[in-house]
């Protein structure tokens, strides 16, 4: 090295010593409100003076290296001096002071590295001051404008960011080279250096262009590790904040693709990436290219739905910026972001509306997405398209509405929109071009009919009925589904009555023969629903031929649901109509029904349980007490065993009907018993056939005896349960064991099976009619003194409460029973 260079190095050190004094002086005289920070800064600067004096005296250092190191230190002193003398220090002054202090520390680190032969004592002093400057922190968070690249790396990374054993990065070309070709550690240091240059405005736009720095950063982004990627994205954001024109250098597809990939990374990286992409989106070319990058819109929608409000807002702004492209809007909708699509439905051109509605009709929508579309207002513009638009608009809108109508909340919105009237008008239309619209229209009506609000539309059911014969099978299925829903509503009593009065059943009957299986099933269900209630003219409305058709359906290998509806219709026919009974008997219906009950169990399906209820209803007509011959016929077909099975496994409705059948049979048991003294018996009967209640020989088939049928325990068990709907029927059945001739024997049998407690329970929890029957039974039972003694204490509490607080018509019977228990005088006012 030349002597002039050595002298120059010495002069620079002397000038640095002078700069230190100047900076310290400016700091001391500063009247800034940031006094504490300036004071700390001044103390650090003053510590440099003796160290620089030592460097100037020492002529054994590596002259070339120390020249560059001290030159770097000179730049930082110049910045420090400008910082303190500026009237407008910085928009974040504490951060700026911190940065200048740390930059001085880095430059001092270069001096330390270059001065290999500095004495150990001075090396330690320089190293201590270097670390102190690098660790300087001020509370600048409240003044912070943006996240710094330095925050990505640890404090240790920042301290060692510039100093390395074999290389000193002082030139921008070195920085660019390290960015493009260095390993991750070298790249990290280069990013830090470049960030410092950008933040200090010491790198020109021309240099950024000449060195293709933005392109280099984008290329490096694709191959960097997580921290480096985050730092690069923040650096790119910083560069466009410094100069908006830098956005144009990031509009190439390669750069945008790498940024989009960052949307799939960790939380901080995707947050920075979406913010950067949002900043770039005011360039038309960027918007065009971003939308075409695979997965971009999907990731933006995902970020939009995240809890991070800042990232969500950025994603929302970017999605809105991209929504000027129809394909982007469709992609957003596929990803579950519907606001732009709905905006097009409301305000777009006719063609764009059709495109949006068609897309909606083809989407596989979850209930959550259907709800979102309804909440954001998709229903009303679609209804407007259907009611006012041309054919293509009507078709696409109807198909979209059909896709949305499976959600209950959307059904309410459809009804509120007034769409029902338009749907019915379309179904009645004879315009050939509109015929293809009738299928989706009828499907939507079927969904809407699930809401009871459909009943607010007068005569809607009657209109649908009149359309059945004018429609194709597919439309017939939809209309029948709608009619089943309407008729099935609990508040549709008047609607059902009007449908029957206007010939609804007769209109439906032909479909039992000529309709396909789906239509037949729906028709059977609708006739079953209409057959409830007033049943007097049901047989006449159906007619003998159709009753036989329905009976035939039960006998055939038809689906379980069809059999359930068919049996239900038969159970609703008046049981007193002997002609119907004869028709069913001739159709061999009884063996079929008994056979259907053979597979009944507690694990049976709900449909099977409903079928069992209906079978029990039909059996009521076959066990009428007025026709012993018919009762014998029924008993021989195994009816009694089937009825007992219903008491065990049936629903409470089936149990109630089974108990009614058993009560009807048991009414004749006493008259059918075979006396112990009978003279015509060829041989003495087995004692197993003797009945202790009827005091004669009984069997289920010959005398319909409840005791021999093992029915009594199951009847009482029904009373012991929590469901009360069968109480009245069960008590009627037990009452047959308390007839005048056998009441005492019957009371002992009921007591044997703990039936007295169960009957008292009905007094406490049963209906008025059940309580009335319970009082009748207990009056007979308590004629036996032992029963009174055993159950008086338990019964009196319930009876007193019933006498005082129960239904008025029960008071006389309650009082009579209390008197029977000697708890009330016979002259009581209760009688």
Automatic annotation (TrEMBL):
Q: Which domain of life is it from?
A: Eukaryota
Keywords, in A-Z order: Repeat
The record ties this protein, via InterPro entries, to: ARM-like, ARM-type_fold, ARM_PUB, Armadillo, U-box_domain_protein
Check the record and name the SUPFAM superfamilies matching this protein. ARM repeat
| Source species of the chain | Coffea arabica (Arabian coffee)
First and last residues of every ARM repeat:
377-419
Q: Which Gene3D superfamilies match?
A: Leucine-rich Repeat Variant (1.25.10.10)
Q: Name all U-box domain ranges.
A: 214-451
Q: What is this protein called?
A: U-box domain-containing protein 24
